[in-house]
């Protein structure tokens, strides 16, 4: 890192895996200067790694990295790289996360950080030992409407929170001809929709309300076979005609009953959480409904720039009012001048990059961190145990999460 006379700090960026998410991280770093010019942070795209030569070339020719390699270790060993984005498939996250920490590189890693609690804990321990800053790809928490919902809860404007209902319903695998990518293989992905979508939902609930302490879960696999997709080709949205059928090894659907911690903002609250990757109808219906003694609110990613807020008891209009995201809600004003002009998914990643790099520079630490990932992984792993035992399972408190720091 280098700080110029005008106070601008240049941070060398490395990227591991140049797929869709790697491209998104790269755009987020590039767009940071436009959304947050006052921060005087200038990411410099230094070194990218991908074993696919075409993607490595794309990193240089399209994304703007100065150089590219086939081996991720070359990025970690590059002295000009200060921070690294880890966007590889799930089964490589823990290996690369531990390696990044041991190399002394601050890292921004996509979720799930590991295939369950055990691998996530390994990364957390490595990061703590190395003293590096971590940030996790829990992008939905950065939506301005979600930030506003979190404020409403923390300020008690919904009263005592009684229950929460959350869902993450996607259709990316609703077609039975949908490709059997690594996401459906237990040895590569670990669990299925629990890690892929439920982990996001757990983080969203814990960020807005507080830690989940107990779960009772069930899971199901809707399509037990799918046509195989060769590793490194296509995406998990691919549809294959007349392919060789192979077994699906993890779950398509998961549901949980949850109890929140007694020391949370929603002390004593209960709830239901569901996730599906085979829903027909919802495209990306990711959201939560929060109910309190004096009001309620609900948010859905498919209408990301809206929050529906009840008028509360005794109000003349006691039903829901649609509130549109506006300047003053989260970081909305950094992207759009007024309500009605929508932010998008990519903007949430710019916010994520900003929070990550602020923490790296020792400024305000508003980023999701490896402790948040560990907390979500513990809940998901408890859900797996519960689905097998058909009983309630505990999730231990995790210190240092942003769920433990209220607004």
UniProtKB/TrEMBL annotation:
Residues 12-138 form the Gfo/Idh/MocA-like oxidoreductase N-terminal domain. Residues 386-407 are annotated as: Disordered. Residues 147-297 form the GFO/IDH/MocA-like oxidoreductase domain. InterPro entries: Gfo/Idh/MocA-like_OxRdtase_N (IPR000683), Gfo/Idh/MocA_oxidrdct_glycsds (IPR050463), GFO_IDH_MocA-like_dom (IPR055170), NAD(P)-bd_dom_sf (IPR036291). Keywords: NAD, Oxidoreductase. SUPFAM superfamilies: Glyceraldehyde-3-phosphate dehydrogenase-like, C-terminal domain (SSF55347), NAD(P)-binding Rossmann-fold domains (SSF51735). The keyword NAD applies. The keyword DNA-binding does not apply. Residues 392-407 have a biased composition (Polar residues). This is Gfo/Idh/MocA family oxidoreductase. It comes from Leucobacter muris.
């Amino acid at each position: 890192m280098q700080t110029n006379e005008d106070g601008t700090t240049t941070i060398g960026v490395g990227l591991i895996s140049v797929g869709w998410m790697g491209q998104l991280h790269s755009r987020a770093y590039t767009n940071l200067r436009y959304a947050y010019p006052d921060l005087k942070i200038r990411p410099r795209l230094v070194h990218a790694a991908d074993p696919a030569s075409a993607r490595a070339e794309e990193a240089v020719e399209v994304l703007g990295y100065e150089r590219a390699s086939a081996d991720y270790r070359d990025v970690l060993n590059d002295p000009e790289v200060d921070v690294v984005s880890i966007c590889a498939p799930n089964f490589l996250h823990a290996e690369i996360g531990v390696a990044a920490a041991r190399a002394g590189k601050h890292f921004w890693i996509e979720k799930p950080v590991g295939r369950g609690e055990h691998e996530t804990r390994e990364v957390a321990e490595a990061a703590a030992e190395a003293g590096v800053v971590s940030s996790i790809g829990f992008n939905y928490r950065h939506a301005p409407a979600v930030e506003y919902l979190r404020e409403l809860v923390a300020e008690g404007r919904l009263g005592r929170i009684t229950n929460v209902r959350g869902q993450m319903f996607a259709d990316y695998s609703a077609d039975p001809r949908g490709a059997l990518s690594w996401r459906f293989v237990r040895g590569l992905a670990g669990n299925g929709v629990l890690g892929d979508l439920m982990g996001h939902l757990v983080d969203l609930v814990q960020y807005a309300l507080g830690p989940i302490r107990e779960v009772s879960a069930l899971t199901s696999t809707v399509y037990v076979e799918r046509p195989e997709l060769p590793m490194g080709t296509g995406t998990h949205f691919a549809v294959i005609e007349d392919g060789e059928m192979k077994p699906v090894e993890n779950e398509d659907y998961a549901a949980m009953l949850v109890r929140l911690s007694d020391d949370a903002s929603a002390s004593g609250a209960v709830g239901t959480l569901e996730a599906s990757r085979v829903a027909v109808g919802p495209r990306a219906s990711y959201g939560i409904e929060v109910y309190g003694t004096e009001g309620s609110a609900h948010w859905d990613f498919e209408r990301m720039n809206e929050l529906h807020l009840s008028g509360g008891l005794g109000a003349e209009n006691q039903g829901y009012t649609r509130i549109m995201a506006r300047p003053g809600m989260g970081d909305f004003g950094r992207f759009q001048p007024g309500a009605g002009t929508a932010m998008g998914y990519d903007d949430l990643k710019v916010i994520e990059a900003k929070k990550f790099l602020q923490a790296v520079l020792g400024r305000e630490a508003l980023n999701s961190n490896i402790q948040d990932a560990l907390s979500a992984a513990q809940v998901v792993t408890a859900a797996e145990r519960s689905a097998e035992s058909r009983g309630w399972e505990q999730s231990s408190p995790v210190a240092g999460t942003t769920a433990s720091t209220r607004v």
